[in-house]
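Subject: sequence -> structure tokens, single chain

Hey, anyone have a minute? Need the predicted structure for the following. Not urgent.
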Amino acid sequence: MSVPLIQLHQVCLGFGGFDVFKNIDLVLNVGARCCLVGRNGSGKSTLFKLIAGEIAPDAGAVAIHKGIQVRLMEQDPELSKFTTLGDFASSSLGSNETYKIDAISNGLKLNLQQEVKLASGGEIRRAALAKVIAEAPDLMLLDEPTNHLDIESIKWLETELKNLKCGIVIISHDRAFLRSASKTTLWLDRGVLRKSERNFAEFEDWRDKIWTDEDAKNHKIRRRIKEESIWAVEGISARRKRNQGRLKALIQLKQKYGSQIKRQDTSKMSFKSDEISGRKILEARGISKNIGGKLICSNFNVTVTRGERIALVGANGIGKTTLLNMLFGDIPPDTGTIKKGTNLKVARFEQNKSNLNLDASLWENLIDDPETALPGRSDHILVKGVPKHVAGYLKEFLFDPSTIRAPARSLSGGEKSRLILAKLMAKTSNLLLLDEPTNDLDIETLDLLQEILSEYDGTIILISHDRDFVDRVATRILFFDKNSKIIDFTGGYESYLNNYSKVDNRLDNVAKPARSKIGAGVPTKKKSTSLSFTEQHRLIEISREVKKLESEVKKLEDFLSTEDVFRADRVKFDKASSALLGRKLKMDELLEEWLLLEEKKS
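Reply:
Had a minute. Here:
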């Protein structure tokens, strides 16, 4: 039988008259591997602080087994008394244990000599993570440990956690990481904590079943209230004394239903593409860049065409953002040429959240944006060209009216990301540049973001370390390897790992000539066909993409052929017509590309 590390019994906690938790029961045993999921603001981090003993419950009991050590990965640790990140990370270790930090820092790519006063937020969070792992407690509470980690470091962390003997509870938005690191799932929803003995991979099916059962139960309650209310109006006058009990039961039923905490609405996110850009978004030839002795790329060639979804993937600090700024920003290459396409209208999500004025309120961040400001109005903005009240628009992104006059710096990381998305989605665009847009978003908001990106008619170029997000959104990868090579691969990240990376690894030490689609050259095998590996894979991908587009075209044509659709909803008609045109143009491009490849093959 597993030994309990910590037990929560009927724990309640509230702030300002609002219940964060209600009668929570939880047992965490030795060797626990749990993920804790829930919407932003549901109280996940607060529950961690309660388990760690940093805050006390209003009611109920928290029992910790004698001698048990619990450590919480701090989000904003106090570092003022430390000189370097290494001093902080090793502050709880004995002199004979500091070797642990050296090994962990290699895995997390943490510079222990970095001065605290010069450290970035990401470096400080990695130092806090290294500190917790090195301390080897009995129970480890990790709050968003993968934020600011690159894919290589995330994979190192997955392996490290599997080898640890302690209990671990994780809060994270990274689906792939949660599937790898968890055995059980804790779900915090409207103050109620539920537990499933299944891995996170089955969370969504479990959650949806609970919600379906809840909706069915509420439907029965509403029907009962309606029936009893009709009875109360029509029949109680003749049977007033005899039926007081039934009337009282009706009142109690209404009170019970009315006191339920309704599920939070889904944010009403949507990107609107502007008029169609030129077919070629960008063409770069022979570009190179060296910054402070660090080679970002050398003799790199890339062409981006309309409608592509491209992910830049690679280690932290390897140059992904720099390349994005070279291609679409104000950083010039050292050599080579960059030619941008016509009619580009760009919306950009900055990793450092520089889109926001942190000292201004949420309200001011919207009305002060020259692209959405409405002259002469301080309470309305232009949302996709249509005037809209600021408070109503922010409410669509799940911001409480009481917070919209507060400074943006008071928001959580996820709320800041939502505010940036609100700013971007108020505008029209045909090119999205997204630099780490997923950090701090809860899983449901992440789901919605993935969905709206898949429906976006424009071009998307993104940087992300979230493998699941990249796989769901991108159809092409620019992979930055350690040798200043940028590998251009058609397909998702998992497809790259399963196919291309294996070829590269097998041939890593063999000198081979460079390929034209790969900026600095990638080793290749002698081929039995005139097509390169990438081109062979592309033929397969084109068939899949065409099949998907054919299905979408049929659905759109069926919709547009519906009787009176033009008069019933002109906006939907125009949107569907535009989407149909875009998909047919894309099919033409794909078929042209397929014919060229088939001709080369033969």
